[in-house]
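Standup notes
- DV: blocked on the single-chain target, sequence here:
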Amino acid sequence: LRPELECLLSNREEKEECFIYKTLLTDLLEQGYGIEVRKCLSIQMIGSMFYLALTINSYGPKGSAVFQATLNKLFNPQTDTINPDIFAPMTLDQYNQFMLILYIACHLITEDHNCDMKEAFTVMVASGDAGDELQAINDKDERFDDL
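- DV (later): unblocked, structure below
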């Protein structure tokens, strides 16, 4: 999975062909925001499908925290050469949230369900409530304090 993530961080064409990215743009368009990602992000507006997926994907808040911590260890902008033009107008943190975390989750679902990314995305969104309920982070869970 690391080579695929590296590619999404270094190759604009790969990013633009990625199902997750295309779905983000489609969702923004369907919500009436157009595909002006910079404008949508600057006013903190995101499409409803992506809001749902980001907040309650099937891996829940714990899964998202683990994915984010993993991305932070794999790709450190202070030590790795990361071209911000690839994910502009998003910041690296936004790109991780809107693209890479969802990509990781969908990739894992494709393996579990033996399906493609489109079906995996549907499964992720449909199982979001379960992920939020089963994988919520609470104050008693000290394992997530350092994430």
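- Follow-up: The mean pLDDT is 77.
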